[in-house]
Amino acid sequence: MTSGLQAALRDALARACEGADAAHDLAHADRVWRLAAAIAGAEGLPAGPVLMAACYLHDLVSLPKDHPERHLASRHSAKAAGPVLRMLGFSDEQCAATAHAIEAHSFSAGIEPVSVETKILRDADRLEALGAIGLARCFAVSGALGRALFDGADPFAKARALDDRAFAIDHFAVKLLKLPETMLTDTGRRMAVARAAVLRRYLDDLADELGVDRSGW
Fold this sequence. Notes:
This protein has 217 residues and is an all-alpha fold. It is built from nine helices and no strands. 58% of the residues lie in helices and 0% in strands. The mean pLDDT is 89.
């Protein structure tokens, strides 16, 4: 049942995400599901169909980071997931639970997570923004949006305001390095701290190569 459901969800997402950016593709959903299952297992919780469906369908509607309705993307995804879930035989209760998890997982949606599945999905998705994978995804998104890697004159914003709409590196300080404190499970928090350390090591290496100081980050 689990493998059949996963195959059906992957197929539904693959059709929807044709042409999606490299940071929000099918491989991203596969990784989010693996992370969510690992978090659930470590927390002693089941990784059931609602969690699996939410992981695979959370980016069913993916809008660019600079889209004016970006903050509504998770709501659009939850709505688009409804027909898929009903086709797969989900009950009304399961559909509602999956929709909430999808809606509330988003950083920009501002929706308070209620269920265990929502908390696990949010942690798993945020872990994807950290570590080596998060580093790659950050630059992939920034490149697609035409943003510079960093401010050559002041890479670590010592004498200017942070601006992650202009510089990819600024996004580390604006959002990414703050993610560990936003985690909702103990397991997610431990994993986030370890992955954030990867980003800090990269910033140290970057600062060394540029011959500048990154203190304060």
